[in-house]
Specification:
The chain has about 250 residues and is α/β, with parallel strands linked by helices. The protein has one domain: 2-enoyl-CoA Hydratase, Chain A, domain 1, CATH 3.90.226.10. Helix content is about 50%, strand content about 15%. The strands form two sheets. It has a six-stranded mixed sheet, with helices on both faces. A four-stranded mixed sheet has the order 4-6-8-9. α2 crosses α12 and α3 runs parallel beside α4.
């Protein structure tokens, strides 16, 4: 498979590494990346040799900055907005095989949702998380965070959209491990290799059971429904354009 906005590596026959590959945009999710990620996940799920998937970002600064704001504003100006990032996040959450996020920098907005949608999060000590939806007039991560950090803390992170550094992420359960950036991929591969040694059918069944024990399907549907309505509001459009202007001034 050949891709442009992602890179697929196979360091071993049983481990696949997907690298979000727009470092000049801090690996922001555009329509091309979302389409390629979904296509890649479909192919890896169909490949019986692949037992574990690792998701990370290109470069050393960002895991994923969230949705490509420039593309989103253009779509909004054209009279609509396809949420490519949300579509990719939904597909990621539905992967039946174990997925490890190797969070190599900041994970904001849709990038934080990508990380939270994975089964295990190994973070560099430079990792940062922000669930930015409320500041843009949307609901982002509210269906995922309660099962990771508990409802009261999930409400704080979603309502305030504040930044969570790597040390706090580990303390609250958002990260499984925190390691120096230089050792991040080795740590993720160590976990992946340990998983790959086990019976893939038993691992897949275990994932299904654990996910069923932590139900969030109805919450996820409710989050999508709220966002469909919120995207039509003048408040969201004004907030999103203002946020885009700030990002453009800084350089996304």
């Amino acid at each position: 498979m050949s891709f442009n906005a992602i890179i697929l590596d196979r360091p071993t026959p049983h481990i696949a590494v997907i690298r979000l590959n727009r470092p000049e945009k801090h690996n922001a999710i555009n329509a091309e990346m979302a389409r390629e990620l979904i296509e890649c996940l479909d192919a890896l799920e169909a490949d019986a040799d692949v037992r574990v998937i690792v998701l990370t970002g290109a470069g050393e600064k960002a895991f994923c900055a969230g949705a490509d704001m420039g593309e989103s504003v253009q779509a909004m100006a054209a009279g609509g907005r396809r949420d490519a990032a949300a579509q990719a996040a939904v597909r990621l959450a539905r992967v039946r095989k174990p997925v490890i996020a190797a969070v190599n920098g900041y994970a904001y907005g849709g990038g934080a949702v990508f990380a939270a949608s994975c089964d295990i999060r190994v973070c560099a000590d430079t990792a940062r998380f922000r669930f930015l939806g409320a500041s843009y007039g949307l609901v982002v991560g509210a269906s995922l965070l309660p099962r990771l950090v508990g409802a009261p803390l999930a409400k704080e992170l979603v309502f305030t959209a504040r930044t969570v550094d790597a040390a706090e992420a580990l303390r609250i359960g958002l990260a499984n491990r925190v390691v120096p950036l230089a050792g991040l991929e080795a740590a993720a591969h160590e976990i992946a290799a340990a998983i790959a040694e086990n019976d893939p059918a038993a691992v897949a069944a275990s994932k299904e059971v654990i996910d069923t024990a932590m139900p969030n399907l109805e919450a996820a549907k409710l989050e999508l429904a709220h966002n469909l309505e919120l995207r039509q509001s003048a408040e969201h459009r004004a907030r999103f354009r203002a946020a885009t202007d700030r990002v453009v001034k800084r350089g996304q």
